[in-house]
Amino acid sequence: MQHSPASSRRGVSAVLQALLLALLASLALSACTIFEKQPIQVPPRQPDSPVHAPATPAPPVRGPLTSADQAFAARNYAAAITLYGQAARNTALPLEQRRIAWQRLAEAALLVNQATAALDAVNGWRQMEPRAVANADWQTLCIKTLRAMPDSQPKSDQLQALQRDSASPPRLQAMAGVSLAAISWRMADLQNAYARLAQLAASYPGQLADLEATLYDELQTMPPSNGESLLLLIPQEQHRQFPATIILLEKARRLKSYDPAQAAQIAQYLQGAVANTALLAAVLGGGAAVPPAAASGGVAIAVPLSGPYGNIGWKIVRGAGIARDALARQGVTMVVEAIDTEQPDWLDKLRALPETITVVGGPLRADRIQALDTANLSHRFAFFAFANGIGVGTMQEGRDAWRFFSSPQDQVRTLVDFARSQFNVSSVGILTPEDDFSQRMTQLFEQEARARGMAVSVTMPYPASDRNAWYDVAGRFLQAGEVQAVFMPAGFDHAEIMLPNFIYHQRRDLLFLGPSIWGQALSRNRNIVERDFQRAAFPWAWRMDAPGAASRELAQQLQATGGGAPDLWAAIGYDFVRFMHAVGQVPSPIDATFLNHRLTASSIEWSMAPIHYDAAGRASQQLFIFRPTRQGYVLFDAPAGTAAPAPTESDNSGEGAPHGEAAQPAPAGGQPQ
Predict the structure, then answer these.
(1) By C-alpha distance, which of 415, 362, 422, 372 is closest to 393?
(2) In the chain, what are the helix, strand and coil shares in percent, each to the nearest 5?
(3) 33-75, pLDDT tens digit by residue?
(4) Residue 324's pLDDT is what?
């Protein structure tokens, strides 16, 4: 047990002591108010996690505590709580034995998820022994008890009070700060979490070992993907600094059971960078070190990581991280830096990237591409926009920036090729509302169809707002000319009402073609008459059941790291990093002719629909063709009855997204703007 010297105790004013006592009393009161009406939910610890776990062997016999100690050692924590509680409140016992009873009572309560009882014990110890605030065991129990409580505003307030109270020892302030950052982390506010953690390391340099241990414990309450995401947000040159060191350490612990070579490689990398050497040894168990691989370049990912499209950006970043790790297993180090384009200083962060990074994936939004044009950064970086077009300001695709996403031209070309090759369609009609997106897609489809020898027999606008008139619209359309297929460049909400009107007019033989935005609505179940949509088709770049090894690895690694099911956004990040590794180092200033040659000469096994570049650096993507079902969508040629649930491309992150560069909604065919 550690006590502060008498001189230190005199240094804390009576007023501050009273404030701390009032704070702790409020902790107990608020905790009881919060937790009496709901069960305590404490995420389970990993079985091999070594940090701060109470020892279960029986402690030395201490007279009246013998029975309680024996119950604790036997893991009969309910009995131990009762017996320790009786001993702690027995004023006839020596102060030392009562202190041990309060401590053991709190530890036993935490082990059975009784956070309120643990908080009562922590407060009981503090009230019995005011100087306990200087005791490292009391500090650890205080933070562990607050951590055991569900995240809430009262919990945040209590942690903030501990961190800001000048009567709190620095160690207690530091640990409270870590738990505050973890709350932001679990709420997906990664920028704030990282800022807090970095500030703690600067403010409490003497408490680094405890900061590390507390953060390691907090990581047990988070999905592995959260750590991966924050790690990609931290610049590579800071990966041997807190908090990146502990995120890597937790990653090594998880890897140890199924990829010991990579875990050992991380261990070697962390040698000398972790202050808590006991933590490092306990987690990694002294595995054989593997020399780090030689660096072979790197990329930056500049996408929204906060705001309404942050979910899309983080999926891209996670896919990029999986590709980076896959290359590391092959002995290749590929640096991946993440930049949040929603932050006002994102261009400054681009300029501050190491000179070895000359390729940037992104941006995603059209206005951010415009900002690149204004900032005049295309001479230093090769930007591969995750957008359906580059034509912004003076920028030209293949000269000032490149595209790593399908275009509207890709959509109409895929549809025309499909209609001709699979159904021998020679004449088509276009039925379109009069919004900008539909008119643009109509123009592109007409050009592509006629260029490939397909007659456009009818082009008819219709009133988007007057759905009662759509039955008559379908009738007039059929009378206007003979067609074998109908292109409807509008959302699926139009298709599911308009298309049955053709069935009512006895034209079940028609082939119906739609844009990629149909996938946005079909990423969730739709109550459609599936028979009516057996001859409806739309293009999309992601196939959930793709048979290749690349798509399988993406799915397996996302599942292993808690990242959920794969989708197009994760595939974009995954394929981008792998493809840029195949392209090789791109010298700066950027030579477009050199890069275009490298793009045409490079190839990978794609997890999404393959992207090809021509000699001028223009990208094209041959998309998959799907048909709608009640469960979502399946490949058009899939046999009836084999429909699988549709992938949730954006977890609804694209719902209501603004239109992209070509006035095309995101995420199913455009990008946020």
Answers:
(1) 372
(2) 50, 10, 40
(3) 323 333 323 333 333 333 343 444 444 444 568 888 888 887 8
(4) 92
Percent of the chain with pLDDT over 70: 82
pLDDT tens readout for residues 201-216: 999 988 998 999 999 9
12, 28, 27: which is closest to 131 by C-alpha? Answer: 12
CA distances from 446 to 236, 428, 440, 517, 536 (A): 48, 9, 10, 19, 19
φ, ψ of residue 624 to 5 degrees: the values are: -80, 155
For residues 603-622, average pLDDT? 92
8 A C-beta contact, residue 319 and residue 569: yes
DSSP 493: H
Q: Which residues contact 411 (CB under 8 A, 6 or more apart)?
A: 441, 515, 516, 539, 623, 669
**What single-letter amino acid sits at 166?**
S
Helix, strand or coil, per DSSP, at residue 369? helix
Do residues 87 and 93 make contact, with C-beta atoms less than 8 angstroms apart? yes
Enumerate the H helices of 129-169 as residue ranges. Answer: 136-147, 153-164
Q: Which residues contact 299 (CB under 8 A, 6 or more apart)?
A: 320, 334, 335, 336, 337, 357, 359, 360, 361, 576, 577, 580
550 HSE (CA, 13 A, CB side): 24
Strand partners, 383: 360
User: Per-residue pLDDT averaged across 74-87, rounded?
Assistant: 86
pLDDT surpassing 70 at residue 146: yes
**Phi/psi class of residue 629: alpha, beta or left (left: φ > 0; alpha: ψ in -120 to 50)?**
beta
Give the H/E segment covering residue 511. strand 511-513
The beta strand positions in 266-423, using DSSP E, are 295-303, 333-340, 359-361, 382-385, 402-403
Single-letter code of the amino acid located at 626: F
| Separation of alpha carbons 9 and 130, rounded Å | 10
pLDDT: which is higher, 639 or 507: 507
Q: What is the mean pLDDT of residues 551-568?
A: 85
Q: Sign of the CA dihedral 340, 341, 342, 348?
A: positive
DSSP string over 529-572 = -GGGGTTEEEEES--TT--SHHHHHHHHHHHHTT--S--HHHHH
Sheet with 333-340, strands from edge to edge, namely 333-340, 295-303, 359-361, 382-385, 402-403
Q: Which of 160, 149, 146, 220 is nearest to 185 (CA)?
A: 220
Q: How many CB atoms lie within 10 A of CB 86?
A: 15
CA 107 to CA 311: how far, in whole Å?
A: 38
Is residue 381 a contact partner of residue 320, using CB atoms and an 8 Å limit?
no
Cβ(565)–Cβ(555) under 8 Å?
yes
First to last CA, the chain: 59
Q: Quote the pLDDT of residue 540.
A: 92
- What's the mean per-residue pLDDT of the chain? 80
In tens, the pLDDT along 103-144 reads: 888 888 888 888 888 888 888 888 898 888 888 888 888 888
Q: Find where tokens 């489809």 sit.
A: 445
User: How many CB atoms are closer than 10 A to CB 271?
Assistant: 11
Cα(240)–Cα(47) distance, integer angstroms: 27
Q: In which band, very low, low, confident or very high, does the pLDDT at 381 lie, cut at 50, 70 and 90?
A: very high
Burial of 193 (0-12, 13-18, 19+ CB in 10 A): buried
